[in-house]
Amino acid sequence: MWDRKHLLDIECFSRGDFEGIFFMADGMVPISGIDKKKDRKRIYVANGDIMTVWFEPEYENSTRTSGSFEGAMMRLGGSCKKFNEKESSMSKGESVEDTARILSQHTDLIVDRHTDPKHVYRLAKAATVPVVNGGNGSYQHPTQTIQDFYTIRKRRGRVDGATIAIIGDMKNGRVVHSLCSGLLPFENVKVAGVHQEGYGLPKEFRPKFYESRQIDMSRLDKELADINPDIVYVTRPQTERGSAMQPYCVNANTMKCLRPDAMVMHALPRDSKSGPEIAYEVDADPRAAYFEQAAYGVPVRMAIISAIMDYDGKIRRASS
Fold first, then answer.
1. Which residue, of 75, 137, 162, 217, has the greatest Cβ tally within 10 A?
2. Long-range contacts from 253-258, C-beta under 8 angstroms, 24+ separation
3. pLDDT (tens digit per residue) in 163-220
4. Cβ-based neighbour number of residue 251 at 10 Å
5. Does the fold of domain 142-295 match that of domain 10-137+296-312?
6. Does the pTM exceed 0.85?
């Protein structure tokens, strides 16, 4: 059960926790600005609060996670600042723990992404404000998983009963690790990991309903036709973590192998050094859900911030 003190791992989320965030995110959509055709409602529950975004500067650059967290906080009426280790006293040798204690004196929430998987736990132990894991090395990415489940729910109506084919680097991909671990509270779920030899899902993230399909990636279309998934979740090769997978690409021919009601997801970016994992021609297919998935990052993270900072309580009190 999530105690709302920090958000560090997806395993702390129960079925009820997911449903609570989904419900809150539904209410945040009109405020989030993702629908440009409608007038956006305004809310100021975070007025005066500051969120610090600590993303390790050399290897953990981000467009979606940092941008959606910052956008979420500002949509709630708060403000944001970026923390850069190279521009701080850490360049003089100050420890993570002391830096966390100092940051806690002039911020209200810290979102952390770092190549060191233990970094976010060190932060949370020393900080006196909530800490949210924005991706810790190759370990987990819990807020992405909540966003992914929300997207599935919006498209399918439910996560339960889904057959999911995950394509790519199962070994090093933190998105995949969180996704598989986070599915445990849902019912009748099946996951097939489609990957090249040596890139399977580590045992610590492998649920009972997971099936490994180790293939030559040139056989991807045939494998997907055999799985007949509700959801195809494409991941990128984690080259920054040493991945050297065979190139693979979901294209128009691949889409012919999928069901008419399937959905294709990707946490993005999709452009690796070997080319895109999803061809641009797929963007026009109604089964392509990855840009919708990215857009939901703002309302979902608005809901997460609201829950952890008790803004949801303020909203309830204001409306009662």
1. 75
2. 253/221, 254/220, 254/221, 254/224, 254/282, 255/282, 255/285, 255/287, 257/221, 257/222, 257/224, 257/225, 258/224, 258/229, 258/232, 258/287
3. 999 999 989 999 999 999 999 999 999 999 999 999 999 999 999 999 999 999 999 9
4. 15
5. yes
6. yes
